Amino acid sequence: MKENPDTELVIPTNQSAIELMTASTEQPSQNPHKPKPPVQPGNVPSPAQEKMLGAPALSQPNSVKKSAGRRKKSIPAGLWTKCSECGSVIFNKDLIDNLNVCPKCDYHFIIGAQERLRQVLDEKSFTEIARSLKSKDPLGFHGVKSYLDKLSQDQKKTGLEEACLVGHGTLNSVKVALGVTDSRFIMGSMGSVVGEKITRLIEYAIEKKLPLIIVSGSGGGARMYEGALSLMQMAKTSAALARLDRAGLPFISVLTNPTMGGVMASFAALGDVIIAEPKALIGFAGPRVIEQTIRQKLPKDFQTSEFLLEHGLIDMVVERQDLKSLLARLLKYLS
Ligand SMILES: [Zn+2]
């Protein structure tokens, strides 16, 4: 798929304005040609996961088809987004004003790390730390693409150096240490750099005596491109959180769609308070892997925020628009 095409569609003359919307830009998380990491629990999105991973981009509506003898229109890309949950077509500006939540069905679209920081922290208060860390390719990994090519592709796509941003800022004027993982960057998976950044963030919180918030969006779990080095990050981040706990500092973990695999099995599940966005996919192995292993049909809402709340794994499910005020309240209680 080409990047940012001004898609030329052939529109029937009696087409309504809404159908003149564009088929949009690249849809990274749904690109069928996207190379997938090797098969590991939590590392391969199931069809259900892929549905939930629907990024805020557009698919071409069935009613807009190319055919001969019809009027041609050139339509600017990226004006509308189709909700992958309810199918509504939403004007992008309205979607952004609504914090990338579908106004019709409340579907929470995936958002990037930079956007999350804007939503959660006070304006322009974020200062990044551990910025200079860069991933290497310790295994010389080659799949459909080499690891280094994949890194460089996702760096261009997201504007990030790695799958997380860590630093400090203020939330309703309270200073916090905050990290965000970004599922658009190699599924938000944790390699050596993400693990090290999270660990340095925790150590920064301990040194400065700050409360810690980590917002996870990591469908990829531990990054298999780095093999055992990725798995070691689970122990490293968990050990750092144990030190934070001994220092008497609070850790609020926010889980977003999707949080899976080695990330969920380490720092994301270790919050003093664990919050999740509605209908987020949260778990260790993907539902397809579990079904194949236990040979039983899983409940319909298995591995969703609501299911995990009911079963006691998380503390609350919170709408995106209420997240900042809730975090502010929690910080007050916990400090
Ligand atoms: Zn919707």
Say what the CATH topology of the largest domain is: 2-enoyl-CoA Hydratase, Chain A, domain 1
Q: Outline, from the CA principal axes?
A: globular
> How many discrete structural domains?
2
What small molecules accompany the polymer chains?
zinc ion
Q: Which range does the strand content fall in?
A: 15-25%
Distance between the termini: 49 Å
> How would a crystallographer describe the biggest sheet?
7 strands, mixed
Class by helix and strand content? alpha/beta
Compute the number of strand runs.
11
Mean pLDDT: 84
| CATH top level assignment of the largest domain | Alpha Beta
Helix-strand pattern: EHEEEHHEHEEHEHEHEHHEH
Under CATH, the homologous superfamily of the largest domain reads 2-enoyl-CoA Hydratase, Chain A, domain 1
Radius of gyration: 20 Å
CATH architectural arrangement of the largest domain: Alpha-Beta Complex
Name the strands of the widest sheet in spatial order.
5-6-7-8-9-10-11
Helices, by number, come to 10
Give unreliable regions as ranges: 1-69
Helix content: 25-40%
Description:
The protein has 335 residues and is α/β, with parallel strands linked by helices. The protein has two domains: 8-97, no CATH class; 113-334, Alpha-Beta Complex (2-enoyl-CoA Hydratase, Chain A, domain 1), CATH 3.90.226. The protein is built from ten helices and eleven strands. It starts with 7 loop residues before the first strand and ends with a helix.
